[in-house]
# Entry
Amino acid sequence: MMQFKIVFLWTDIALWGLMAVLCLYVLRIRAQATLRATWVRVLRDPVALSASVVMGLFLALTLLDSVHYRTALPANSEGAVFYESRTNSLLDKLLARQIAMRETSYSEPLSYRGFNKENLAAEGDVVRRDYPRLQFGGAHLKNPTQDWIGDVLGRAGQGLALGLLASALLAALMAAALARSHGGWVQALRDVLADRTHYPLRAVLLTLTVIALLSGPVVMLMGHYHVFGTDRTGNDVLYQALKSIRTAFVIGALSTLATLPLALGLGVLAGYFKGWVDELIQYLYTLLTSVPNVLLIAACVLMVQVFLDKNPAAFETGAERSDLKMFLLCLILGLTGWAGLCRLVRGETLKLRELDYVQAATAFGVSHLRIMQRHIVPNVMHLVLITVVLSFSELILYEAVLTYVGVGVDPTMTSFGGMINLARSEMSRDPVVWWSFAAAFGFMVTLVLAANLFADGVRDAFDPRARNLRPHVLKKK
Amino acid sequence: MIQYIIRRLGYGLLILIGVNLFTFFLFFSVNTPDDMARLNIGGKRVTQEQIERWKSERGYDKPIYWDEKQEGAKKLTHTVLWERSVSLMLLDFGRSDARQAVNIGHEVKTRMGVSLQLAVPLFLLQVIISVSFALFLVFFRNSRIDFWGVVLCVLMLSISSLFYIIVGQYFFSRVLRLVPINGYAPGLDAFKFLALPVMLSLLSRLGGEARLYRAMFLEEVGRDYVRTARAKGLSEQVVLFRHVLRNALIPIITSAGSYLPYVFLGSLVFESFFGIPGLGAFVIEAITGQDFAIVRTMVFLGAVLYIASNALIDVAYTWVDPRVRLS
# Structure
């Protein structure tokens, strides 16, 4: 049996902690009627529900990529066990073939030959200059010039068929689940397709069908080809794009989370106590906002870099080191980004503290701490929630910029920012190397767009004023 | 009024002192001047002698925060912190740590001119275009145009500005060959170098800005005075331009004003991508070269500009809304 040891990286712990908090929040939603009603409103919005399905899929990939382990090397003569220096995740295990399919350099998507001409030794002494065959991509083709197009189309067709099948299966599942409440599964299926269900299941079905139709061919092809090509060192771009999702998710989620303690705590304190406490806290956040953000982050990241360089012995593997760097980056983003939310919370608390029920609580001699805990914090939570979901997508975009400036995640860690950064020089080659850029673009836009749409849905549900801003087409009678 | 200005200045000064202490602490909490010297001299074998010389040339050979050896007030003044802070407050930025030949004050002056050439047109166009697009959407509210316009906005704000730059550079410079890929030339030639960055920067911000302004306008459209104006029989154009736009000016100024410091500081990403020698590119060089003197100067300048633009925003409020008084 293969031995392995589980590695707990900092961001893994934080992510799973976050999941636990999310579960607790779901329990809380179930217990509170008003909260439940608001979330039902979010989920009844077809766009928000579809976006949350996409987010859910990305989250699943992230979580798969957040269980890390190192396998043991074959035991040596003394029986001592050593572990591989490479840290793998469950996602790596799933995509083991993509990692193994490493070529020597660039190759176009779905190609069977390299991108650059090389000197090939032919029979005899003649040296031919031609595109080399790839070691893995399309290696099963005997006569590539003839078979290639048929093979690719055949596999893609199979993938599409599989995708359709999955989608049909999903529709059947939905119908079966709704069969009781809708009177028979045929009626249920009709209702789903005509969008007459409590939750807009048709939108979910549509979203998942599109995803299935897109990912079907990719899954069928990726064992034999590089669906998104390979990068300069021959790594599969699809694999890199999938790995970047975790980086984006971690930055987006953990950084927003890191702003919360300061923003919420100081905001409530400032609004509740007013006076010199308020003055001090206002001074602090004015100070913070008056420094250009990138410079502040850059200064902090440089500090972290110096610290990491001074203590190289503290980390067993490179993965641990780059992970800690990302974790600290999230903390820095959190510590430098709390001013906006803090201002909002302060303003809301100023209003809340004058309300009758808070005054009544004060008159009854309830302690300050308890008033803040029971009466103020729950009533500013909607602001917090809206800000959290809105800043998630902003931070994902910000990561790309920071990585470009050179203060983002570690270069050894795949991220969208890193991919774009490399794409910059690739796009100026001739002929142009566009696939890494296109892959990063596709995945990043999907993720950010889903996050934005979900955030809009949440804001509409939690902020009654925002609902009027939603564009809707008035039907003419 | 005078009291207001004095209070404003005093608070600004307090913030500047805070920013200065903060950056100092941030930088020297892990770094020591020795580290900086080693990094800047470079090379594997750096002798202590070289480090000492590097430090004394740049005035880092004193204690950082507090000098025990000196007498009285000199304990405080004979330090790196004091000397650097005082010169910064007097707007004497000194020289770069990495390259002694670079006079930061001079550099900032020339580079700011370049940055302004990029940023002023950008700022004006951005406000005009975003506001007009938002007004256009509001004019067609509750119709398909508004719906798809908002969809477009959300899509545009979901795309990283880096994508706009790379695609734009590829398309306009390499395929169409309309403008040079990057670089800069002074005078009228600057136009052909600056046209593309301005356009791409506009595009990359249009989605978010237009959506924000649309929300502000819609907020105003729901008000009673708008209904009254309509009841008087005013046309939709007059209602939008004379009433809604004027009343939405305050939030527009707040939001556009927050960009003001960056008008002077330049855009980090756009300047370095297009090779425009402005302040943004200067900052990136300083960050990658760990040039503390430059980073500190830029942080300080950023804070000054932030305070100044906030004061400007307040003045602008009184200008668009006579009810607002500065006090």
In short: The mean pLDDT of chain A is 86. Chain A touches chain B through 50 residues (CB under 8 Å). Residues 144-182 of chain A form the longest helix (39 residues). The two ends of chain A are 71 Å apart (CA to CA).
